[in-house]
Amino acid sequence: MNAEKHIHYWRTGSDEDWEMAEIALEKGKIRHGLFFLHLAMEKLIKAHVFRVTGDPPPKIHNLLTLMQRAKLPVDQKTGECLSELNTHCLEGRYADEVAPPPSPQRAEKIMQQAQEIRTWLLNLL
How many structural domains is the chain composed of? Predict the structure, then answer.
């Protein structure tokens, strides 16, 4: 698979997961919405990892580690958002071992912050 196809694969997957996050959050399924939000961001960052390295991205889920692999700068606001999203990756997988999901208002705020990062990442592709 050539570079364009790899990047398209990750970006398309990110778009699909972003849509699922929106649907889940609209339906009040916060844990699932934030899980898909994390997954959407993960795939978009993995597109950047491939863009920079030319190699398939590692099978890891930590958004901050992936940002480093993609050689993308992380300011404090972005770092805080991505760190929070990392917790929702785990909560989506192991719900019985973690705290309850955030309020709908907090979930909306997380979505807004992630949208800013997403727009930036899309513009860089």
Answer: 1
Question: If you average pLDDT over every residue of the chain, what do you get?
Answer: 92
Band (98; pLDDT cuts 50, 70, 90)? low
Q: Which tokens hold the place of 66?
A: 């992936």
Task: Please state the three-class secondary structure of 7-72 as a single string.
Answer: HHHHHHHHHHHHHHHHHHHHCCCHHHHHHHHHHHHHHHHHHHHHHHHCCCCCCCCCHHHHHHHCCC
CATH number, domain of 22, equals: 1.20.120.330
Task: Give the whole-angstrom CA distance, residue 32 versus residue 54.
Answer: 32
Cα separation, 96 vs 23, whole angstroms: 23
The yes-or-no verdict on residue 95 having pLDDT over 70 is: no
